[in-house]
Amino acid sequence: MAGDSEVVFIDSSVLISCGRREGTRFQALAREARHRDTVFRLSPQVYAEVTGDRAVDTYASGNSAVDEALQEGWMKVTESPSYSDSAVSKIMDQVRRFIANASDRSEDIIEKADAEIVGLALEMLQNDTADRVIIVTNDIPLGEAAESLLPQYGFDNEQITWLLGSEFADELADDFVSDFE
Amino acid sequence: MATREANWDTPLETGGEVFELLGNARKAWIYTYIRHHPATTVQAIAETLDLPQRTVYEYVDDLEAAGFIKQSNDGRPAAYTAHEIDLQLKDGDTERRLTTELVEAIARRTRDDDIDTYIDRHGLDGLAVALAYTREYVDGSVTHQIMAREQGISPLEAGVILDALRPIVED
Fold it and tell me: Would you say B28 and B104 are in contact if contact means Cβ atoms under 8 Å apart?
C-alpha cells in the first residue's frame, strides 16, 4: 500500500491555541488540510489532553471543534506508538532526556507519552507510511527534539520539519487582543 | 529556572496604593493602551475602551499622579506616554515585583475570558507564576506539560494560559 508522502502531526499546544478562537483558527487548519490534501494526525495523548478535562469547562476555550474535525474527516487520531519496537521506545526516551536538558528539569517531570508524536513520526518513516513528517507544536523543546533526534535514525533533515502553529498557518499568529498590537 | 526557585507562597493581593493598578483591570488596561500607543489622548482611549471620558480622565489623573504615565506634549489635548513599571514592593520581609507585563496581563482579562477565568481560579499570584512560565515557554525552556505538572493543573489549562499570555512577553 502506498503511504501518504507527507504526514502532519498537530500537537495539543496548537489545538489548545486554536480552541481559544472560536472557529476561526480551526477554519484555518481545515483550509491547510484541504490545501495539502491530507488528514492531520493527532496522537492518542494529544486527543485525551484536549478533550478529556471536564474540570476546566469554565474556560471559554471549547475543544469540541476537535471532535467536529474528526467527524468531518480532516483530522484523525492515530494508534499509540509501538512501545515494543526498540527504536521507537529508544527515541521516546531520548526525547524525554532532550526535554529535561532543554528545560533544566529532572527527567521525572517529563512523561514518555509527552514524546509520543516523535515516536509515531519515527514509526511512520520506518514503515514507509510517510516519507516526510511535519510536526506542528508550540512546545519548542519537543520540536527541537524531533528535528535533532529523528535524523539520527537514518533519515534526511528534509524529511523532518518542525513548525510553530504561527508558522504553519498565518491566522494562528494573530493576537487575541488586537488593541495591544 | 525562575519558576522553580522563586517563592510564590506569599500573596500579591495585599499591599499599598500601588496595588490599585493590580485590582482595577480598566485602569491597567488604560496604562497598557498608553504604553502600546505612545502620545495617545483621553478621547482616543475613551473611544477604544467605550468608557465615559470623565472616567478616563479620572483614571489618567491617578496614573499620572502615581508616576506610571506622563504628559508628553505641552498643548491640548494632552497626550500621554507610559513609563515602564518594575517595582520591588516590600511588605514586611516579603518582596514582590510589579512589572509592566503583569499589569498588561491584568488588563487583558477585560478582553480575554481565559485570563479572567485563570485569575478567578488562581489569583494574581497564580497569574504572576504563569507569566514567569510564559517567559520560559517563549524562550523554549519549558513545555506546557511541565508547567501543568509543576503547578498541579491540567495540561489543557496550562496550554490555555500560556497561549493567552504569550503575546505579552513576545512584544
Answer: yes
Is residue A145 within 8 A of residue A17, CB to CB? The reply is no
Report the pLDDT value the prediction gives residue A62, as an integer from 0 to 100: 58
DSSP per residue, A77-143: EPPPP-TTSHHHHHHHHHHHHHHHHHHT--GGGS-GGGGHHHHHHHHHHHTTS-SEEEEE-S-HHHH
Are residues B96 and B47 part of one domain?
no
Query: What integer pLDDT is reported at residue B118 of this predicted model?
Result: 96
Nearest to B143 among A16, A103, A181 (CB): A103
d(CA A23, CA B162): 20
A124 at B interface, C-beta within 8 A: no
Complex ipTM above 0.90? yes
The residue among B64, B82, B100 that closes a domain is B82
Does residue B26 lie in a domain region? yes
Pull the grid cell for residue A64: 469540541
User: Are the beta carbons of A177 and B137 separated by less than 8 Å?
Assistant: no
| pTM for this entry | 0.90
pLDDT mean over A88-111: 97
Select from A55, A105, A181 the Cβ nearest to the Cβ of B146.
Answer: A105
Using the 3D structure, point to which of B27, B47, B82 is the last residue of a domain.
B82
Chain A contact set for B142 (CB, 8 A): 103, 105, 141
